[in-house]
Amino acid sequence: MDPLTSDQSKPHETPEDVDHLRFHRAHEHMHHPFGNDAFARRPEAFARFFGTPLFLGSQSLVVLIWMGISLSGLSAFDPYPFILLNLAFSLQAAYAAPLILLAQTRQADRDKATSEADARHREAIAMANQRRQRDAEIHSQQLLQLLEQNTHLTEVTK
């Protein structure tokens, strides 16, 4: 069924009866970028978390503590060039980059689908407005004819 023709508003429908998201329902399957199961939602949560101020602050704090412990001499687990820290950053980047790129690609797909649904909705609204204008013109013409008939009858009865 064509979504544009399925938008035929019935006169007895109230605004509360109308499903305002009807054009977006077809794209609900795109809600989660990695899928809808629990295993797929975890990578999305990680990808979203990587850009938050909490993550950046936490990572900075861990790095400062790591460097402080290594430089203070309390523990020599990673001396000055911080090779182990560099390896940890590389490992994090190796996992974070593909997750972020995948989330970005899927977000672009969702944005496109949302844009198309919005365009269909705007088109349906425009068509409904044209119908209402046409109906208003017809009613105006009918009222004008009735007024002319009434005027004519009034003149005849005088």
UniProtKB/TrEMBL annotation:
Q: Which residues form a coiled coil?
A: none
Signal peptide (from-to): none
Which PANTHER family does the UniProt entry name for this protein?
INTEGRAL MEMBRANE PROTEIN-RELATED (PTHR41386), MEMBRANE PROTEIN (PTHR41386:SF1)
Question: What's the protein called, per UniProt?
Answer: DUF1003 domain-containing protein
Q: Tell me the keywords, alphabetical order.
A: Membrane, Transmembrane, Transmembrane helix
Q: Key word Transmembrane present in the record?
A: yes
List membrane-spanning regions: 49-69, 81-102
Which Pfam families is this protein grouped with?
DUF1003
Its domain of life reads Bacteria
